[in-house]
Design brief:
Elements lengths: L2 H24 L8 H4 L12 E5 L3 H17 L4 E6 L2 H10 L5 E3 L5 H11 L1 E7 L5 H9 L4 E6 L3 H8 L2 H12 L3 E4 L2 H10 L6 E3 L4 H4 L9 H8 L7 E7 L3 H15 L4 E6 L5 H10 L3 E4 L49 E4 L6 H7 L2 E4 L12 H5 L3 E4 L7 H9 L3 E3 L3 H12 L2 H17 L3 H14 L1
Parallel strand pairs: 1-2, 1-4, 2-3, 4-5, 5-6, 6-7, 8-9, 8-12, 9-11, 10-11, 12-13, 13-14
Helix pairs in contact: 3-4, 3-19, 5-6, 11-14, 12-17
């Protein structure tokens, strides 16, 4: 489809999106920034080196770029790497991981915007994380001879393939995917779908999942004990951490927590929602459910509460912790908030970049967006930290990783919130099983490492022509 025709299709869609943006801004409090960049005004200053443009939509994809960008920088040291993102959470995370001068917003897919952005960045190659494909961007970049690849590629059967198979989109999708210079798919099932979509078979490769390489295998995280001290999380009592939760899930988790408290009254709960714009809503839900809410953003006097920066930069007072120490941390001492005891409070992680710290403190982790049909969340960070984990039935976005963990008896999958409560009680009572699950999870991470090097091989070969 010619770019101009696509522009005409996009225009009413963009106009129709304006009321949604206004609603999000003034009702939901969600501020979408960087509009000049989204229209191609990219504040990038070239150093004269060839540029590799890596695009990651949101937080999860940005986190997956860490090992990739490090490998590219090491092997192609005569190139600059820039990172674009779509969401505000992705942009904030990218600015934490990389110099802000290398990060910008992904351009809207109008042809004049795409040309403006490409003229500004002048990439020698483009890497798209997972499946962020837009027809004008790919058409115009490919017409300029810029090799475009997909890293950590995945195509879900339930959503993406169903959409790409519709008669109106099918031919457009096949032309778009046929332009790909290479695809590094996470597994063979995804690779087969890329071939079906039109990527030439000799350009599709199974490279593995980059997130195994970004999941550092360790028993502790710098800054975790500082976080516990600031929030009043007891280090001598069990902590149930629910990470990356989604709408409709927190209410279920609070009900589960009440059930667990009946058998294990010292158990603590920390909830870390996936979306920052939901922090206030979740805080209100916690309080309306009869618990006091201890918010991370309000608990550390050394932090600027208006700034969601990762305090990883500060040194952890417990970096020398013995890795063989029990994950219950018995005898390690406790820090309490005056008037706050387990069963009366729920801890809310409402800052960016601290999820791994909460995971590091956990006795058991629940991986969110999986009790509700939202596709699940990343399990590799939990696995790398060797924590016992469980997740719900909706893990289609991380199906391969979930299956590997389940096959290794490194995780438990539950179907309902009632099953989750039973599982948490069982795991709280069985330290040996928790430790066995944690070691098995770390083994899964080690056994599946190497996707980064294979992906950069594909990039280098494509750039050589």
């Amino acid at each position: 489809m010619p770019p101009l025709l696509l522009d005409l299709i996009y225009l009413p869609v963009l106009l129709g999106f304006v009321p949604i943006l206004l609603f999000q801004r003034f009702v939901k409090g969600k501020k979408r920034g960087g509009w000049a960049q989204r229209f191609g005004s990219i504040p990038f200053q070239s150093s004269g080196k060839p540029v590799i443009w890596v695009h990651a939509v949101s937080l999860g994809e940005v986190n997956a770029t860490r090992s990739l960008v490090a490998e590219i920088t090491m092997r192609l040291h005569d190139h600059d790497v820039v990172i674009s993102t779509t969401t505000d959470t992705g942009y904030a995370a990218a600015c934490q991981h990389y110099s802000a001068s290398r990060v910008f917003r992904y351009p809207l897919d109008f042809s004049f915007v795409v040309r403006r952005a490409l003229n500004r960045v002048r990439p020698a190659a483009i890497v798209l994380m997972e499946l962020e494909v837009w027809p004008n961007f790919i058409e115009i970049a490919a017409s300029r001879g810029i090799p475009i690849g997909i890293a950590n590629g995945r195509v879900t059967e339930e959503k993406s393939m169903r959409r790409f198979r519709t008669p109106i989109i099918r031919s457009l999708a096949r032309r778009m995917f046929s332009r790909m210079a290479w695809v590094g798919a996470q597994d063979e099932a995804y690779a087969a779908r890329f071939r079906e979509l039109g990527v030439p078979a000799d350009r599709v490769h199974v490279a593995g999942n980059l997130k195994y390489d970004t999941a550092s295998v360790s028993d502790s995280v710098p800054g975790a004990t500082d976080l516990a001290a600031a929030m009043g999380i007891r280090t001598d009592a069990p902590l149930f951490v629910a990470g990356s939760t989604g709408p409709g899930e927190e209410e279920l988790l609070l009900t589960v927590y009440r059930d667990v408290l009946q058998s294990h009254p010292t158990t603590q709960l920390a909830i870390i929602p996936r979306k920052p714009e939901r922090f206030d809503d979740v805080a209100r839900l916690i309080e309306s459910s009869g618990f006091a809410c201890v918010r991370r953003s309000h608990s550390d006097q050394t932090r600027d509460p208006n700034q969601n920066r990762d305090p990883n930069q500060s040194r952890d007072r417990d970096q020398s912790r013995d890795p063989n120490q029990s994950r219950d941390r018995q005898g390690a001492g406790s820090v309490t908030t005056p008037g706050a005891t387990a069963g009366q409070v729920v801890f809310l992680g409402d800052t960016m970049g601290e999820l791994r710290k909460f995971y590091s403190l956990a006795t058991v982790v629940f991986v969110g967006r999986s009790l509700v049909p939202m596709g699940g969340s990343d399990v590799m960070e939990v696995a790398g930290l060797g924590r016992a984990m469980c997740f719900g039935p909706f893990m289609e976005n991380f199906a391969d990783a979930a299956e590997k963990l389940l096959s290794a008896t490194a995780a438990v999958q539950v179907s309902t919130s009632e099953e989750l409560a039973l599982t948490l009680n069982e795991l709280h009572e069985n330290q040996t099983r928790r430790e066995q699950m944690g070691r098995a999870a770390q083994d899964v991470v080690r056994q599946n490492a190497g996707a980064t090097a294979r992906t950069v091989d594909l990039l280098v070969n494509a750039m050589r022509g």
